[in-house]
Amino acid sequence: MVNTAPTAPILCTFSSNDELQNALAQFIVKAQKESIEKKGRFTVAISGGSLPKQLARLIDNPAVKWDKWQVFYADERVVPLDHEDSNHALNTRELFSKVPIPHQNIHTIDPSLADDLEELADAYEKELIREFAMKDSARFPIFDLVLLGIGPDGHTCSLFPGHALLSEEDRWVAYIEDSPKPPPKRVTLTLPVLNHASRIAFVVTGEGKADTLHTILDEPEKGLPASRVRPVNPGHLYWFTDEAAASKVQYPRTPFKL
After folding, report:
1. Which are the contacts of 192, defined by CB distance < 8 A and separation ≥ 6?
2. pTM, 2 dp
3. What average pLDDT values come out for the chain (258 residues) when binned by 10 residues?
């Protein structure tokens, strides 16, 4: 019998943002190395918010093999790709415009389909199928790494508390028209996709997230969306936080080591 029970989260806290960014970069480079050695490429899903800024140590880092990265967005706002609300625009501004990643290795939504969200979500799912299905042919894509943040309400990607999308079991990419946080139209990877990843890293900083992080890690039974991100074995879940964000968390910390 294959054990698919979720593995326990690993919580690493850092005394400064510099320490956190350095550790995060080391962690990503190690994941990249293992993935390239295994299958010649590194598949990453990335979100927006405060996360892209925390990836600064990947810039001018000779260990990063940008030509091997295949990047997808864990969620995206249905706006033009250069719009200020676009996660692609944010990641481009903070990271991708500063590194030599081939343009075709960054997989964006097709904003020309903005008037038909079902078609737009299907088109993005097909983009994932092109990258994953023939190569790994699994029920769900298996990302090497998913990089996420959380909102003050415990949402992650565009998976919001109490929303019907939390119970989606089949689709890889789903759309939402009624996001409680603007803009209302978005597409998002679903929980089954997140929970089949090899590694997920949440990056959370600041005292404004302290209560939320406490609920996610100490009271997972409350079912906040970020608490439901628990990759099945052999996947691993990591939380990279500063002391302020983790100040109310009882969950045991693990010293960071590669």
Report:
1. 140, 168, 169, 170, 172
2. 0.96
3. 75 98 98 97 97 98 98 98 98 98 98 98 95 72 97 97 95 96 96 97 98 98 97 95 98 95
